[in-house]
Amino acid sequence: MSDDELNDSEMGTRSQSRDRSTEIALSVDSVTKTFKIHSERASSLKQFIASGGRNRYEEFTALNGVSLDVKVGEAVGIIGHNGSGKSTLLKCMAKILTPKSGTITVNKRMAALLELGAGFHPELSGRDNVFLNAAILGMARQEIALRFDEIVRFSGLEQFIDAPVKTYSSGMYVRLAFAVAINVDPELLLIDEILAVGDVTFQQRCMEKFVEFREQGRTLVLVTHDTSSVRHFCDRAIWLDKGVIRTEGRPADVIDEYTEYMLGSEEGADGSSRRGDGKIHVDKVDILVDGNRVDRIRTGDDVTFRLHFEADEPVPNPVFTITLARLDGIGVTAPSSRDADAVPKQISGKGHVDISMADIPLMPGPYVVHTAVTGWGLKHIYDHLHHARTFDVMAGDSAETNGLVTLRPTWSWTGDGVSPDIELG
Ligand SMILES: Nc1ncnc2c1ncn2[C@@H]1O[C@H](COP(=O)(O)OP(=O)(O)OP(=O)(O)O)[C@@H](O)[C@H]1O
Ligand SMILES: [Mg+2]
Predict the structure, then answer these.
(1) Fold designation for 280-394
(2) Are strands 75-79 and 236-241 parallel, antiparallel or unpaired?
(3) pTM
(4) Which of 193, 222, 341, 363 lies at a 20 to 30 A Cα distance from 353?
């Protein structure tokens, strides 16, 4: 080692460490993937004959010459619109799909948590799927046999392991996939939008696993619509747009660019992006639990949304509104300060307003916050900030998994034939 190198490594900067960080875990080289889709144009017999029977399908290009390298120990987040090719890319990486052209090289032991059902054969039993899935992930049959009991135990699906997977609930599907993925002891883990599904404890377990994974210096490729988890978990973000990489780089930069683009592209459709005369504007939204700023809350937490604002000139009777929506766009609630009779006579300068919600009933999932500041009549818009921030809800005190919110139901039974003993589990 030369003196220079010694100095470099003493400095301990990432870019200068010579070994681990330059080793490639996964390499995608000019990958193109097309799907055959039924052609409308050749739907008539005449057209079919005219085309010589060849044009029954059209090719749709889902990935178009995608190249990227993932280094050992790196966490890479892939973001992009619906249909931009994220899942397709991950499936190609996981060898579930074969690209039309290009190559994918995997240098590390890989496991994948793909889109619901991908990698599973619905007609086969859970047992057969474990063997199939683990084999795809590169495990020898004997090795799987050795770990089989542990996989089943981990999944909690002992009773159902010989039933065909098509009879599983989405939560059961995911548990099985998770159990296999974790138990092949991967050095490289591919994850597709896993936070959107799964049962109550599942997201929590995933989060814990991600953190553990990162700490152990393992490699992670994460596909998600939740930019906040990319911001917090990933070293690098890649924005996939219509099958090509549009930008890659530091998560904060890529996400900002992506968000800006999303806002711009949505403008007109639902009046999104920042609008208004800006006399008063919301600059930041913090989420507080027990006085701490957080990105993640749990069902049942007492949560405060803190809107930091600034008024460039005195503004009379400004009405603040905060909208909470799930990331897929479904609105949950949109309280305003006017509803609450909490409108100051005037605001100037900087400040913040706290909107506190006790025992928040949101079900687990990714959410987004929009804010608006209007005049008393709600017509004059000072500031309308679409997509002010995102946050995650993790499973908390409720065992419910369906829907947007828990309304904290209670159950009571009546009837001659109803045994009072409630069977648990
Ligand atoms: N098996 C298939 N047959 C035909 N078209 C497909 C198939 N799988 C994916 N596609 C198409 O390829 C494109 C990319 O799909 P993909 O699922 O990779 O998108 P995505 O980025 O994961 O989207 P989302 O954010 O909604 O999960 C879409 O237009 C989709 O309709
Ligand atoms: Mg997808």
Answers:
(1) Coagulation Factor XIII; Chain A, domain 1 (2.70.50)
(2) parallel
(3) 0.58
(4) 363
